[in-house]
């Protein structure tokens, strides 16, 4: 079997910086309120009409491909992770393939929200290890800003998210001491609805949530989208923050330790942990529980907010660009999010 390594990495962040204070014009909040709860000071928002999830993914991909010493014609397969695609269908993978004028290669879209990039990386790793493909482009990109509730009603969710993209080229290698050592994927759908975007969707009130109590089932059962959904703010992301926090601080450390134990390693062996940038308070809790030093954990949610599927590759790329990751270093990627899903990947740079 082959090993798979990250041969090139890139990121893209929109130019538009939105601070906590900028949000005051839309909602009743404050810089102190947001920072205390999330650690976030600012985030990036894509241009409303000129940038999409795909176009941002394309920019990150170009950098990753160039840094890998390849051209777009060398890519064998695409795995694109996002929860905010350009269209309900088709997915962003084929749009990226078209934009980069690639060969008629396969394109797979992954819908695992915050865990999306780590899941996508795991899928690509299996394709490389079995010898099916040689160079796989793995992208995580999000454009949240177009679909958030910018009112006091929606502030608990809307202040958290930002836009951006990250990408890696996963490449075949025969060096057993380099590359992805293992990946670990989990899910628990028991509480799926406490972090979800219900509409538009095909559930037709199948899930009897309180917010649907006054809906006419005979009508809603035939509707994909309605004015009532808009009026009741049912077209925006919904999150029970405390419940998500409680689950995350348990599963995050578990899946990190799982990756280390599977390879006979300890937290002291880690050069860098790159957690999904969900909430700085979660990352700090995980760091304390695992007794990691400050220099062993990389966070950038302060500047970019939560970019879900894009957060891990953006942080990984930024850490590498700053010289915090060098050849031979042990790096752990970990994520937890909607579903619930959680995952980790342990790699030797």
Show the helix and strand layout.
Layout: E1 3-12, E2 16-19, H1 31-38, E3 42-45, H2 53-67, E4 77-81, H3 92-99, E5 106-110, H4 116-129, E6 135-142, H5 155-158, E7 164-173, E8 179-187, E9 195-196, H6 217-220, H7 227-231, E10 238-239, H8 241-262, E11 272-275, H9 280-290, H10 301-304, H11 311-321, E12 330-337, E13 341-348
Parallel strand pairs: 4-5, 4-6, 11-12
Antiparallel strand pairs: 1-7, 2-3, 6-7, 8-13, 9-10, 12-13
Q: Can you put this structure into words, describing what you see?
A:
There is one protein chain. With 349 residues, the protein is α/β, with parallel strands linked by helices. It folds into 3 domains: 171 residues, 3-Layer(aba) Sandwich (Peroxisomal Thiolase, Chain A, domain 1); 123 residues, Thiolase/Chalcone synthase (Peroxisomal Thiolase, Chain A, domain 1), CATH 3.40.47; 34 residues, no CATH class. Helix content is 30%, strand content 23%. The protein is built from 11 helices and 13 strands. The strands form 4 sheets. A 5-stranded mixed beta sheet has the order 1-7-6-4-5, sandwiched between helices. A 4-stranded mixed beta sheet has the order 8-13-12-11, with helices on both faces. The longest helix is centred in the C-terminal third of the chain and has 22 residues. The two termini are 19 Å apart.
């Amino acid at each position: 079997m082959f090993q798979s390594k990250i041969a090139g990495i890139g990121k893209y962040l929109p130019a538009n910086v939105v601070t906590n204070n900028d949000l005051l014009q839309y909602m009743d909040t404050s810089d102190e309120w947001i920072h205390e709860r999330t650690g976030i000071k600012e985030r990036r928002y894509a241009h409303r009409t000129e940038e999409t999830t795909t176009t941002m993914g394309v920019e990150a991909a170009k950098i990753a491909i160039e840094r890998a010493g390849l051209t777009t014609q060398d890519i064998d397969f695409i795995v694109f992770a996002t929860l905010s695609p350009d269209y309900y269908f088709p997915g962003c993978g084929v749009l990226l393939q078209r934009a980069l004028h690639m060969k008629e290669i396969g394109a797979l879209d992954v819908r695992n929200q915050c865990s999306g990039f780590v899941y996508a990386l795991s899928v690509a790793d299996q394709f490389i290890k079995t010898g099916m493909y040689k160079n796989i482009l793995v992208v995580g990109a999000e454009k949240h800003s177009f679909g958030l509730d910018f009112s006091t009603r929606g502030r608990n969710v809307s202040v958290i998210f930002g836009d951006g993209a990250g990408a890696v080229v996963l490449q075949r290698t025969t060096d057993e001491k380099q590359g992805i050592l293992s990946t670990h994927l989990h899910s628990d759908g028991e509480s799926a609805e406490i972090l979800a975007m219900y509409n538009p969707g095909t559930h037709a009130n199948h899930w009897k949530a309180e917010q649907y109590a006054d809906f006419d089932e005979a009508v809603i059962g035939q509707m994909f989208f309605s004015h009532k959904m808009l009026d009741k703010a049912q077209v925006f992301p919904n999150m029970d923050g405390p419940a998500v926090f409680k689950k995350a601080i348990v599963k995050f450390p578990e899946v990190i330790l799982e990756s280390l134990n599977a390879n006979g390693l300890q937290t002291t062996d880690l050069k860098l942990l790159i957690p999904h940038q969900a909430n700085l308070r979660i990352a700090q809790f995980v760091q304390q529980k695992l007794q990691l030093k400050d220099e062993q954990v990389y966070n950038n949610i302060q500047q970019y907010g939560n970019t879900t599927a894009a957060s891990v590759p953006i942080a990984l790329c930024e850490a590498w660009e700053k010289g915090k990751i060098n050849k031979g270093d042990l790096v752990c990627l970990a994520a937890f999010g909607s579903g619930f899903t959680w995952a980790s990947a342990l790699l030797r740079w």
